[in-house]
Write a structure and sequence with these properties.
two-stranded antiparallel sheet; 37% strand; 18% helix; alpha+beta; four-stranded antiparallel β-sheet; 79 residues
């Protein structure tokens, strides 16, 4: 699992089990469009629905850290 961003409360989070297929945490309540974030020192453009708040990140990260599985109570993209 990786988490990046933080600017204006927006984070991008993904999880992978094999480094080939990636599940991205989604926020369907965010409007469509693009959000610019600095992640890993590089400015990039991300779909608004891929930008989630800190509470959602922490919930997903806790489940992943404790069980090694995706939190099924939040929405993930399919790889």
């Amino acid at each position: 699992m990786a988490v990046g961003g933080g600017e204006n409360g927006n984070y991008v989070t993904y999880a992978t089990f094999d480094n080939q297929h990636f599940h991205t945490l989604l926020n369907p309540s965010n409007p469509s469009g693009i959000i610019t974030l600095v992640i890993g020192g590089q400015k990039g453009e991300y779909a608004a629905n891929e930008c989630v708040d800190l509470n959602m990140v922490l919930k997903a990260a806790r489940k992943f850290a404790e069980t090694g599985k995706l939190d099924e109570t939040v929405l993930w993209s399919e790889p």
